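Checklist before submission:
- one chain only
- standard amino acids only
- sequence pasted in full

Submission:
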Amino acid sequence: MTPELVGARGAVEIFHSDSCRDGSILAIVDRNTDCSAFPATGSTAWAVKVGGTCHNATDTSLADACIRYRAGLP
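Returned file contents:
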């Protein structure tokens, strides 16, 4: 999905669940999010939801997930 489509549909949700389970959301980010405000250690981010679809991601820190996905899927 291109960043333009992501922007049109809304922000990216980051989860501490490989299946984007309710109650496991860590953050909602977009291209304007200051990712440095999130923890840069640990492997708490496990999946992202873009345009309503959950995508299992490589386990990473919340800050790294924010940087990677705030503009949509790479």
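Reviewer check: The chain has a mean pLDDT of 85.
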